[in-house]
Amino acid sequence: xxxxxxxxxxxxxxxxxxxxxxxxxxxxxxxxxxxxxxxxxxxxxxxxxxxxxxxxxxxxxxxxxxxxxxxxxxxxxxxxxxxxxxxxxxxxxxxxxxxxxxxxxxxxxxxxxxxxxxxxxxxxxxxxxxxxxxxxxxxxxxxxxxxxxxxxxxxxxxxxxxxxxxxxxxxxxxxxxxxx
Length: 180
Fold this sequence. Notes:
By secondary structure, this protein is α+β, with helices and mostly antiparallel strands.
């Protein structure tokens, strides 16, 4: 004989309903938008000058759950050559929110020296195209239940190389959610 408990049945039904609702809700890709580039220091390494900059990035979490992510590095490219990296510190973001991240980066001018004709043309046009990639891994939590995720972001940014103003950009992100 099986003992029937309404409490256990209601808890089981609520858990099943919450799980089904969570599984049917399609997670959305976060969005990233480079707001500004600010030079913080120059390091003279004759005949070149390396720069330390801070990238200000606007990040939107469109999902109904908070996210927690681990630290990583963003790679920044010019004409296919690695120009530098930006550190993304570990952090978190509340559900359906926006925040600004300030990412310190070091740019190696030696890589620009490999493309002198293109750099001069970019300076004349006042448009320099930079590409960046980053993989961000973390956990999205609903109560005690956490799902690992990975977001791959590709950015194509046009900046004014004289004033470092962002002229145009295109960002693509792909979200992978691991259910196991």
